[in-house]
Amino acid sequence: MAVKRNTIKLPPQNIEAEQSVLGALVIDANALLKVVDVLKAEDFYKPEHQKIYAAIVDLFEAHNPIDILSVTNRLKEKDTYGAAGGSSYLAQLVESVPTAAHVAHYAQIVREKRVLRDLITASSEIADSAFSPTEDMEQMLDTVEQRIFSISQRSSQKKLGYLPDRLPEYIEEFEKRQSPDAALRGIQTGFGKLDNLLLGMQPSDFIVLGARPSVGKTSFALDVARHAAIKSGKTVGVFSLEMSEGQIFDRLVAAESHVPLWRIRAGRVKEDAHFRFLQETFDRLSRAKIYIDDTAAPNVMQIRSMARRLQIEQGLDFLIIDYLQLITPREGREMNMVQQVTEISRNLKSLARELNVPVLALSQLSRGIEQRGGSPKLSDLRESGSIEQDADVVLFLHKEADPTKQENIVQIIVAKHRNGATGVAELVFEQDYATFLNPSGPGYASDSVSASPASPFA
Question: In what residue span(s) does the SF4 helicase domain sit (predicted)?
Fold first, then answer.
C-alpha cells in the first residue's frame, strides 16, 4: 500500500516579481514613485528583498541617488549587506530586469501575495483563538471581523495623491463650490439652514441627536434617511431598536406620501382618492437603498458586525441608530449606566472612523432638563457617559413654549460642531405625517426648500 506523504505548502509568494521590482528600482530611481505608496518592506516574502527595499526607501526619503552603489553603501551602513545577498545578488537583480516599464504591475503581484499570506496568518490565529478562547464569543467575533476587514481595506489601499497631478481636479471642484447651485459635500439633511450650518454630515463624523420624548427624533432621522436615499441615491443603514420594521415602513410612507400616519396604520386609506399618490410613493421607496435592522436590543458588537457587512456588500454611505441607550452592553462586565453608554458611544465613534461614513445616533437627555426647563445644553448629555466628548456634532430638537411662535415650530440646535459653526435652525414638525419641513413665509426666505402645502388627505 502506498504511503501518503505530507507535503509542506509554501506561503503564497512570487520571487520573480519581487526581483523584478527591486531590479527596476535600482536601474530607474523614478520607478519608486510608482510603487512607494503601494508597497512596504514587509510585503516582500524573502527577508533579503525586505532589506534591499528598505534601503532603497531610506535613500529616497533622504533625497539621495538610487543606484547599485548607493544601495550597497546603505545596506553596509545598516549592517544588512551580507544578509541581503551581497554584491553578487544585487548585480543579479539589475541584470535580470531590462526595463523598469512594468514595475507597477510586478508591485501589484507582490502586494496580492502579501494579502494572501495575511489571510493565511489571520485564519491560523483565528483557529487558535477558537480552540483556546480568551475572550467572550461576541468580542472574539468582533475581533475576527475587524481583522478580516482591515486586510480587505489594505488590499484596496488608495494611492497617495500627488499634489501637482491632483491640483487641477481640486481647482475644478473648488470653483464648482462657489456656484449658488453647488451641492454640499457630505450627506445632506434636506433642511436648508441646517445644511448650511453643517455643510452636510461628513464622513467619519459621529453625530448625536438628543431631544425630550415625543419631539420627533425618529421622524427627523428618517427624513434625513429618505432625503439621502431618494434625492441623493445614497445607501443608508437604519438600526431601529425602538420600532419594528413595519412601524418604520408606516412612517416612511406617511412622510413621503403626505397621507396621515393614523390612516396608514388603521388601514383607512381611501384607495380611489389616494391610489396615485401612494403608488408614486411606493415607486420612489422601491428604489431607495435603505437597509433596516429591527433586532431587539442588539449589542454594539452586533451593530458593528452588521454595519461592516453592509459596507462590504452594498457600499454604506450613512448609518442611523435609534437609539443609543437601547443598545445592550456587553455581557461579563460589571458597569454602571454611565460606563455602559461611554463604551457604546466610543465604539460608535470608532465605527464611524473605521467605515468612513457619518453615524447619526439618537440619544435620550438626562432627567435634569425636565426640572430645569429651557433649551437643551451639552451638559444634558453628561449623565450619558462620554457622548458629549466623543461626538463630532451634537444636535438638539427643542420645542419652545412660546405663544408667539407657531405651535408646530421646532428648533434644531447645533450645540457642538467640531469642524464648523454652531447655531439654530427652525423646522416645521407635521406630526400627523411624521415628518419635518423647512418653514416658509416671512423670515424664512433663506431656506432652500419651502414647506409643502397642507395635505388634502387629513
Answer: 180-443
d(CA 35, CA 6): 38
- Cβ neighbours, 10 Å, residue 350: 16
Confidence band of 297 (pLDDT split at 50, 70, 90) = confident
Q: Give the DSSP H or E segment for 236.
A: strand 236-240
DSSP 215: S
Q: Which of 401, 75, 72, 51 is nearest to 215 (CA)?
A: 401
Given this model, what pLDDT does residue 20 score? 92
Q: Which of 245, 194, 178 is nearest to 186 (CA)?
A: 194
Q: Rounded to whole angstroms, how far apart are CA atoms 319 and 235? A: 9
Residue 273: what pLDDT? 61
**CA-to-CA distance for 153 and 199, rounded, in angstroms?**
27
Domain boundaries, the chain: 15-132, 185-437
15-132 folds as DNAb Helicase; Chain A (1.10.860)
> Which helix (H) or strand (E) element contains residue 290?
strand 290-293
Cell of 153: 481595506
Three-state SS letters, 342-376: HHHHHHHHHHHHHHCCCEEEEECCCCHHHHHCCCC
The pTM score is: 0.62
Determine the topology of domain 185-437 in CATH.
Rossmann fold (3.40.50)
